[in-house]
Write a structure and sequence with these properties.
Two copies of one chain form a homodimer. Chain A is mainly α. Chain A folds into two domains: 51 residues, Arc Repressor Mutant, subunit A (Orthogonal Bundle), CATH 1.10.10.60; 144 residues, Orthogonal Bundle (Tetracycline Repressor, domain 2), CATH 1.10.357. In chain A, 74% of the residues lie in helices and 0% in strands. Chain A contains eight helices and no strands. In chain A, helix 2 crosses helix 3 and helix 5 packs antiparallel against helix 8. The longest helix of chain A is centred in the middle third of the chain and has 26 residues. The radius of gyration of chain A is 19 Å and the shape is elongated. At the A-B interface, helix 7 and helix 8 of A face helix 7 and helix 8 of B. Chain B binds a DNA duplex through helix 3.
DNA sequence: TTTCGACTGTTCAAGTAAAACAGTCGAAAA
DNA sequence: TTTTCGACTGTTTTACTTGAACAGTCGAAA
């Protein structure tokens, strides 16, 4: 209780060490002993802060997700066209998911299938993303910039298109991290899809 | 030489037997002996018609692809709105790929990764599909129905969106065939995406 | 409150042996 | 000449075993 701040700091140090390792080697290839070594602790001490390896991993993902959320909320506050905001959102999202891919979480052959524990984390975040997209579209409607036929469906469909494009590209990678070239291709595809989507909901 | 017709007939019988087996159990779980048994032949006889198991599988896929191509070309000839043709194309394409998924070819955990032999087959067919979509869009342009900003990019982006949506849904299935409910969901998503795309390229 | 050495039960990876398989060949039937 | 197939071979897959590595526990100590 005395050193609540210090405790939080150590927790963060562990999360950061874990993120670096996970990002490089993936969940299964990292041991708790290695992470403990990085923060100069005994392995058992890690279990004082995180009851399981899964929990530590979840904390890493959660941190990353929150950072994306914050960066998008920042975009929302800017005085820009809604269409411009949508484009910036897509860009931010790509950067973020590149990290997640390196975290070995989104790869096709990843833990996703077996460890459904992590599924919930991503499903929850999908709701957060959906909300952010809806806000951008609603703003566009208010400004008479957008006029979608099906406002409710628009956000969901758009999110699924983005998810799909990423998924499709990941199929080609052999479970390893995305190389620069593939990332560029994906970037262009997402931009093109965003353009078509914006054209589709624009007020005419 | 005398019985060329009979020979073709037997070849087809083999392909049909193979398709049934592959569709049910997937490429790796089917043996040449089983297929031979279905057409009441010895295993060695199969090798008279198809030099390898891969070749037989390719023949099955090729037949399916050709059937889709024909059915889409039929749509193209009808006197309908280009937008309607695009919607029908998406529908036909879904039916077709459901068969391919059952063939165990498109599943995430499929032979796709290891056997790059099959990759070419699908890459080639992507070109065929691209061509068909381009034809529909061009027709729409001629009729002043469509007016896309980037005509060349439109077809490719649209195809990739469709591929992506399918890929995204397949991620949830455990490598098994798509159940009816999931298929319905995918169908609705594709329809929604098609609507947005059509709106995006419509002449305003 | 926080740390950790020493421990446990489980999971995973490397190795192995046997079975199943794709593909061959030469002889025989049509 | 065209088509069939039994008997064969070398390779791949699978089922099983074993030792090591691992996640997670606990009680003592700082």
């Amino acid at each position: 209780m005395i050193s609540e701040k210090l405790s939080k700091e150590k927790e963060n140090a562990i999360i950061n060490a874990a993120r670096k390792r996970f990002a490089h080697y993936g969940f299964s290839k990292v041991t708790m002993e290695e992470i403990a070594g990085d923060v100069e602790m005994g392995k058992a001490s890690l279990y004082y802060y995180f009851p399981t390896k899964d929990d530590l991993f979840r904390a890493v993902i959660f941190q990353e997700q929150n950072e994306l959320k914050k960066s998008i909320e920042l975009i929302l506050e800017k005085p820009k066209y809604a269409s411009e905001k949508l484009r910036e959102y897509v860009e931010q999202r790509m950067k973020f998911f590149r990290i997640l891919i390196n975290l070995g979480t989104l790869s096709v052959h990843s833990y996703f299938d077996t460890k459904s524990v992590f599924k919930k984390l991503f499903l929850d975040f999908e709701m957060v993303e959906l909300d952010l997209i809806k806000k951008i579209i609603d703003e566009g409607k208010l400004k008479n910039e957008f006029n979608p036929d099906l406002p409710d469906n628009a956000a969901l469909t758009f999110l699924h298109i983005l998810q799909g494009l990423r998924c499709r590209v990941l199929r080609w990678t052999k479970g390893q991290s995305l190389d620069d070239e593939t990332h560029k291709i994906l970037q262009n595809e997402m931009k093109a899809a965003t353009d078509f989507f914006i054209h589709g909901i624009e007020n005419k």
